[in-house]
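Hi,

Apologies if this is the wrong queue. I'm a grad student, and the batch job for DUF3995 domain-containing protein from Nesterenkonia halobia produced an output file that my downstream script rejects. I'm not sure whether the problem is my script or the file. Here is the sequence I used:
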Amino acid sequence: MTPPAPSTPPRRGRVWFLLAAVCGTLHAATSLVWAAGGDWLLATAGGSAAALVEDAPGSAAAALGAVGAAKLAAAWAPLLVERAPGRLRRLLRAAEWCAAVVLLAYGLVWHMLFSGAGLLGLFGAPEDPGALTGHLLIWGPLFSLWAAALLAGLARSRLPGGDSRPSR
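Support response: The file is valid. Your script probably expects a header line. Output copied below for reference.
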């Protein structure tokens, strides 16, 4: 006979979820700084973001504020999901697995691979080498680390017998 699933969430994945939360918070912080009118690292984000901030600061503030809030929520949600009951936990963890895979692909492929190829001139002369360098050296690795930490936390925090536990 197998023992019943624990009634409290496993803590094994907690360190990984905290690392993921820190990475996501760093992403969120830059968006929120830009929403507030700051320009710290804005040049590394690319021309469209910088142009939006310059051409339509009110719209940029609203959009970047929303993006920053969404990143912050996504960064800390995994720690809260571990306390969710049965089916809700299973559903939210499935969404987290999907988000982690998308973040990893986005960081590795879109930011790092394509930016590296762009800097090498594989798509022609780079229009914005500073932004490509930022994507390659800052945003891609940070997205990838966020995703890898989330994946590790999800893998380490699996409950025996699956991701659900009985509801109370």
